[in-house]
Design a protein that fits this description.
There is one protein chain. The chain is α/β, with parallel strands linked by helices. It has 2 domains: 109 residues, Response regulator (Rossmann fold); 86 residues, Rossmann fold (3-Layer(aba) Sandwich), CATH 3.40.50. Helices cover 50% and strands 8% of the residues. The chain contains 12 helices and 4 strands. Strands 1-2-3-4 form a 4-stranded parallel β-sheet. It starts with 17 loop residues before the first helix and ends in a 5-residue tail after the last helix.
Length: 221
């Protein structure tokens, strides 16, 4: 009811388990799947992984993005869902409009993390993630500007916010993000954020890097 009430959103179907998600892809053709982690039969984790690996048979170039609907406790299944290709996380008790915003953002190719999920996820990820050195090596293929864009993305900035922060065009930001994903072999921005933290490029609690605009005009407000 919440999503159907929005003029730009349509709920094309509801199913009760992960296998049903896969079985109904061709008929329902969703752009975004709001996925619970724990379901009978095939759970949301395996279904998310299958969606990332096996594109819709009728349209292999189409990407079906996944939003994980989770409880406050962020457990191993959520980390696995992120690695499997989930693009967003929303708490089950989040404000109603947050789910709407998340669906719109993920459909547009953005990542979406509920603030409470992000805080817990990043805190736990710092403890549970593998050593940073192997992942850090992958970042050497990025240019200085691409690394800047990745850092700002990991801080939670949207594309337009990154453009404003770096004083560059929105199209340029999209190009840099596309190159980051391509060079690092990542599926979407959510995986890029995870890699940035895993590699130590960004750490939880760090302040946002200074904007070139502020550096040029230190007295500006």
């Amino acid at each position: 009811m919440l999503l159907d009430a929005e003029p730009d959103l349509e709920v094309v179907g509801e199913v009760s388990d992960g296998q049903a998600v896969l079985d109904h892809l061709e008929a329902l053709r969703p752009d975004v799947v709001v996925m619970d982690v724990r379901m009978p039969g095939m759970d949301g984790l395996e279904a998310t992984r299958r969606l990332a690996v096996d594109p819709p048979p009728e349209d292999p170039d189409r990407v079906v993005r996944v939003i994980i609907l989770t409880t406050y406790h962020v457990d191993d299944a959520v980390y696995e869902a992120l690695r499997a290709g989930a693009s967003g996380f929303v708490l089950k008790d989040a404000a109603p409009d947050e789910l709407v915003l998340a669906v719109r953002a993920v459909a547009a190719g953005e990542a979406w993390l509920d603030p409470a999920v992000a805080r817990r996820l990043l805190s736990d990820f710092a403890v549970q993630a593998p050593p940073a050195a192997p992942a850090a090596g992958h970042l050497e293929v990025l240019t200085a500007r691409e690394r800047q864009v990745l850092v700002l993305l990991a801080h939670g900035l949207s594309g337009p916010q990154i453009a404003s922060h770096l004083v560059i065009g929105g199209a340029t930001v999209k190009t840099h993000l596309a190159r980051v994903l391509m060079k690092l072999g990542l599926r979407d921005r959510a995986q890029a954020v995870a890699l940035a933290y895993q590699a130590g490029l960004v750490r939880a609690g760090e302040p946002l890097p200074s904007s070139p605009r502020r550096e040029r005009f230190p007295g500006a407000r």
